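Minutes, project check-in
Item: structure for the 253-residue chain
Input as provided by the requester:
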Amino acid sequence: MDDPRTLFDLTGRVACVTGASSGLGRRSAAALAAAGARVVGVARRAEALAEMKNEIGENADAVVADIADRSNIVALVDRIGAKFGAPDIVVHAAGVNTRETADEVTPEGWDATLALNLSAPFFLSQAMVPAMKDRGWGRIVNFASLQTTRAFPGGIAYGATKAGIGQLTRAMAEAWSRFGITANAIGPGFFPTELTQTVFDDPDRAARNAAQTCVQRNGRMDDIDGPILFLSSKASDYVTGQVLMVDGGFTAK
């Protein structure tokens, strides 16, 4: 038997992480780099993305782009691969939640949510898959949500996209796993990120959320490290089309 620790070694791999300027995307980029990957972070905010790049060091690159804009997707993939080569791993962590109630949803808010949360992961992956096929190895890691299966107030557009991510993940697996490319998703519970800042700004609400988990606490940023490394590495060779809930057992109750 080979040393099991090598299963998580990403030395020689190239990873692209969207939404890498903050939150779970930034944490994912750091975790992948710590495991040996060369990481390309993609986001719209140049200053925050530069901070991510500086924190990781020479094994990181940054590409400032709006991934929801599909008009230049091929050019974007070329920019992502310019420094380290075409990615072996793509992590789709970018997302938006307009928090509009069903009666308040606007066409603009709906379209923006679908474009970033659901359309971008597909079209960016589609553009990266040919290089993965050539290598016979690839990893696609989508970000699902508690709202993949639960309905939350003010989350109808966001929840629709995250339910879509569940099916998109299965469909990607069906289409591409025969070529050595696995597709899985992580479904985070409540983590202290910009996207959930309004939740953590209310101590009572944060405490109620923690009480609904099996482990009786909300997520810490380091709770994402193991799952992202597992789904991005050789350790998950025979795992595809799955949504791994990293929620402290919130959805188990």
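Outcome recorded: The chain has a mean pLDDT of 96.
No further action items on this chain.
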